[in-house]
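TA notes, week 10

Several of you asked for a full example with nothing omitted. So below is the full record: structure tokens for the whole chain, then the designed sequence directly under it. When grading your own attempts, check the secondary structure regions first.
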């Protein structure tokens, strides 16, 4: 619907907020409404990390305190009230449905053996699978985009604490490794994992949000140095100087928009 959706994770206010996509006369995105909120009917939404729209038009939200990925009816949904939890994923219906929060698409490891330990970034791959960074499992996990069934796990000896994920084309996923201070490149078809940005390259410390610009640079939030760095998206070569430095707080997400 061209609106802007934001995860609000402030203390007890776990919500998905919606803002108008078009700028107002002051050049800002005006608040529209609370699209979804944690309550007794929606306990799975607890400390949301991000928001991801799926190919089906529904909203997928990883929550850090329940370690589930919840699925909510999208703004144009005809299968449920927009913002309301959708039925639990087909793959979970037989095994753990009675114990899961409404709307659960991927369960935590408290509910299923192959569930998530500490969920962070999520994104849909070109093949329709949902990719989830499982921080404490040091793994990126793939789930079938329709049923939620586990498809594949991507691991590497030096891929520690994956947080943010970013598609690079249909078959490549970039993953920031917080404890390795590096960025890895995963071939989603073969499973091959290579280092794109070496440890601490260009001053990278605590990689967080990433974005690829039309200029061929990979922009990366360096949380612990409070900088935005950039690297050649193909080779991982760092720019000679930080793109943005001396930020007042830890940068977590970055999004490039058309100007």
């Amino acid at each position: 619907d061209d609106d802007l959706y934001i995860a609000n994770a402030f203390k007890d206010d776990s919500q998905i907020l919606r803002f108008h996509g078009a700028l107002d006369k002051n050049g800002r995105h005006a608040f529209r409404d609370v699209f979804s909120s944690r309550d007794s009917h929606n306990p799975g939404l607890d400390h949301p990390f991000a928001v991801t729209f799926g190919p089906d038009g529904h909203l997928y939200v990883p929550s850090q305190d329940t370690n589930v990925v919840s699925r909510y009816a999208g703004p144009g949904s005809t299968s449920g009230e927009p913002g309301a939890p959708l039925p639990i994923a087909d793959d979970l219906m037989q095994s753990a449905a009675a114990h899961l929060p409404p709307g659960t698409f991927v369960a935590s490891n408290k509910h299923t053996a192959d569930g998530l330990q500490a969920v962070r970034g999520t994104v849909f791959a070109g093949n329709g699978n949902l990719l989830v960074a499982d921080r404490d499992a040091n793994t990126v996990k793939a789930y079938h985009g329709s049923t939620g069934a586990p498809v594949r796990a991507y691991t590497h000896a030096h891929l520690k604490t994956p947080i943010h994920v970013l598609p690079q084309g249909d078959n490549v996923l970039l993953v920031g490794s917080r404890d390795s201070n590096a960025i890895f490149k995963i071939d989603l078809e073969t499973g091959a994992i290579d280092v794109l940005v070496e440890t601490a390259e260009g001053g990278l410390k605590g990689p967080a949000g990433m974005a690829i610009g039309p200029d061929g640079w990979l922009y990366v939030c360096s949380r612990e140095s409070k900088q935005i760095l950039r690297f050649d998206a193909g080779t991982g070569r760092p720019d000679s100087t930080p793109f943005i430095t001396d930020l007042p707080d830890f940068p977590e997400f970055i999004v490039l928009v058309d100007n």
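Residues 119 and 134 are 5 Å apart (CA to CA). Use that as a sanity check on your answer.
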